[in-house]
Amino acid sequence: VQLVESGGGSVQPGGSLRLSCGASGHTYSSNCMGWFRQAPGKEREAVAGIRTNSGSTYYADAVKGRFTISQDNAKNTVYLQMNSLKPEDTAMYYCAAHSSWMCGVTWARTENYNYWGQGTQVTVS
Q1: Which residues contact 124 (CB under 8 A, 6 or more apart)?
Q2: Which strands form 2-6's sheet, in the order they lie side by side?
Q3: Beta 9-11 vs 120-124: how paired, if at all?
Q4: C-alpha torsion sign, points 54, 97, 75, 47
């Protein structure tokens, strides 16, 4: 599976961005998709996840109510709508995928993911 993120950029606090993650290749391996972020000097952390067959979604506490993960199965694309952005949301954002259907218990752990995109930078200042 190849993953390509887009949509990052610079925005003022309170602004919005929508990230996209396009998947190609063996997309049947993408049963659980996740968005992660990594700020300089910090560990990569989970932001949101989605189980692709059911559409069930999962969020980190830091982004609940502000970020929304969604998918367009026809386009093999997962989105991350980010609203009310804060300076602390500044990071490189990564899309990831793995094949387990146990998304609800696996989505937040980086070691569960087999496939990663190259990342897209989000800067809030």
Answers
A1: 10, 11, 12, 13, 15, 85, 86, 87, 88, 89, 90
A2: 2-6, 17-24, 77-82, 67-72
A3: parallel
A4: positive
Centroid of chain to Cα 7: 12
Tokens standing for residue 9: 């950029």
Would you state the pLDDT for residue 38? 98
Find the angle CA(49)-CA(27)-CA(9) to the nearest 5 degrees. 50
- pLDDT tens profile 74-99: 999 999 999 999 999 999 999 999 98
Q: Is 45 helix (H, G, I), strand (E, B) or coil?
A: strand
Q: What is the pLDDT of residues 7-59, one digit of tens each?
A: 999 999 999 999 999 998 876 667 899 999 999 999 999 999 999 999 999 99
∠75-54-56 over CA atoms, to 5°? Answer: 100
Coil, strand or helix: which one is 86?
coil
- What is the distance between the alpha carbons of residues 70 and 63, in angstroms, rounded to a whole number? 14
